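re: the backbone from monday

yeah here it is again, tokenized this time
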């Protein structure tokens, strides 16, 4: 097998001092979605409009006239992130504000599940906006219910220990790649150079751009809040969350080379997997290895 490409672009971006998200918001300690928004806005800049549906971030942002964001924002219905973003884009174009970036910002429930129809339609039309899924792997805002982003074996309030989730996580990146959109990428806040580069790259591309951000949720993952960054890093190093990008649906590039640690090292940090047996862990490891091999085949050089 030909070794996959790993980007060798310059690292150590200078992170802007400008803060477009206020301190003292109502997010939980260690919230991966909040850390992600703060870093994303540093890459996007002030000339950005966010579109946020019903989700944790609709609460974190706050109700008008108070907001934890220092940019324009539209709150919309759970299933309509992409549709609303298309409308904002059209309105801005109509008044000549073509340089303003429109960024949808939704959780996994609003992306993988209830919002996928609007997202698919917008992607098929190649609408000009960035769609960010902050993926905490369950419906966290409404009480930690299972979503199609919830991984195999995980506890949630609707998949309790004796009936844990027995289906694998939906592969949203492959779904977006099938739409042949200009750009799709995964990243985490544990890799800020990669994170900033991808958001800046997406900002310069026209058409539909999709960024999938792993966003640990300490309450939902049953882990201490100070472990969010470490959990993100281990998810990448054990290959459960590969960091890569897809251009035009066909060109795959691996951006972070995993260390190849056992999956159990990552899962053991989280109480939501505490009920799994050695046999379960072995099965998860086997599936992760198969998924990784499949991804590597897509990255072979012609």
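seq for it, each position gets an aa:
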């Amino acid at each position: 097998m030909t070794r996959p490409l790993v980007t060798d672009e310059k690292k150590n971006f200078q992170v802007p001092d400008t803060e477009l998200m206020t301190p003292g918001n109502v997010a939980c300690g260690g919230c991966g979605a909040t850390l992600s928004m703060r870093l994303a806005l540093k890459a996007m800049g002030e000339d950005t409009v966010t579109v946020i549906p019903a989700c944790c971030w609709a609460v974190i942002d706050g109700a008008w006239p108070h907001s934890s964001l220092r940019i324009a924002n539209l709150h919309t219905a759970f299933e309509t992130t992409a549709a609303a973003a298309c409308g904002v884009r059209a309105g801005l174009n109509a008044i000549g504000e073509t340089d303003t970036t429109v960024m949808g910002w939704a959780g996994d429930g609003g992306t993988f599940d209830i919002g996928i129809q609007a997202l698919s339609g917008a992607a098929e039309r190649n609408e000009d906006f960035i769609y960010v899924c902050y993926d905490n792997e369950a419906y966290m805002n409404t009480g930690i219910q299972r979503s199609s982003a919830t991984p195999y074996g995980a506890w949630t309030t609707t998949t309790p220990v004796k009936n844990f989730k027995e289906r694998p996580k939906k592969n949203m990146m492959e779904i977006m790649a099938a739409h042949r959109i200009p750009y799709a990428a995964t990243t985490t806040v544990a890799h800020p150079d990669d994170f900033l580069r991808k958001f800046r790259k997406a900002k310069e591309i026209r058409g539909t751009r999709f960024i999938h951000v792993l966003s640990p949720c300490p309450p939902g993952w049953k882990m201490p809040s100070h472990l969010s960054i470490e959990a993100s890093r281990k998810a990448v190093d054990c290959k459960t969350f590969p960091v890569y990008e897809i251009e035009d649906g066909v060109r795959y590039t691996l951006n972070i080379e995993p260390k190849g640690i056992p999956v159990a090292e990552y899962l053991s940090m989280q109480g939501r997997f505490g009920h799994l047996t050695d046999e379960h862990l072995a099965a998860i490891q086997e599936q992760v290895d198969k998924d990784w091999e499949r991804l590597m085949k897509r990255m072979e050089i012609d």
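Residues 1-9 have pLDDT under 50 and may be disordered. The radius of gyration is 18 Å.
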